[in-house]
Amino acid sequence: MLTARTVPDLRRLVRAWRRAGSSIGVVPTMGALHAGHLSLAAASRKRADRTIVTLFVNPKQFNDPADLDRYPRTEESDRETLAPYGIDLLFAPPPEVMYPAGFATNISVSGVTEGLCGADRPGHFDGVATVVSKLLIQTGADFAFFGEKDYQQLAAIRRMARDLDLPVGIVGCPTVRDPDGLALSSRNALLSPEERACAPALHRALVMAAGRLRNGEDTACLAAAAAEIAAAGFSAVDYVELRDAEDLAPMQRLDRPARLLAAARLGSARLIDNIAVEPAGCD
User: Fold this and answer.
1) Cα(275)–Cα(210) distance, rounded to whole angstroms?
2) What does the DSSP 8-state code read for residue 184?
3) Which one of 4, 61, 173, 255 is CB 3.0 to 4.6 Å from 9, fit for a cystine?
4) Active centre residues (catalytic)
5) Is the pTM here over 0.90, yes or no?
């Protein structure tokens, strides 16, 4: 596995692959890799001739400096994790490469970024859209792979790529979970053993709420899901909401394909999760 830290070095390798007729997939990450990231790398390896994994802790998507400082930085162990998976290139630029002196451009995606995590983290999705657009342009990838766990992020990236006519296919991949249902996340490392034991309640509450929605109840039933999450030991529930699966418009009743999304705080971690919900008879 090769490593590039500058854009010229990255593009030199990409040009050689293009001359050989290879297609390119990219998996953007902030490191602290787990099986969810590896599933994205596997999806890229299956679909593209060459795979680039990017590793960059993006300061522009953190609105809390303490959260940025806390975020795990594990490049050496990430490199070891990727080694058996046939990844062609690790692109791990330092901050000054991604945001050189005088950097003044910001990409903002309206609509799908409003509410949900956008309400709690002002500027977060601008930071995501800006860095992802740069990575897609820098790598010149044919396909980019993102997990569905960060569903609002995936929706924003799809909208951004469509609006800017970026010649890349945005591929959403299923959430990878532990056997007890907890969605894999780099932030799970922040949980104490006691908190980790409580964490699967987030997914359980979504599954139960989805059943009630499919049985014809309206979104008033989501208050019970929030109460179940809080009773399990979470310190705060930021939201439990039903949104349109395509544009994330709020829904009051399950009358079309939807996504049930939640965010809640447990110890020093803010956990998010979501599941697809289809009206009865649409499976």
Assistant:
1) 8
2) P
3) 4
4) 37
5) yes
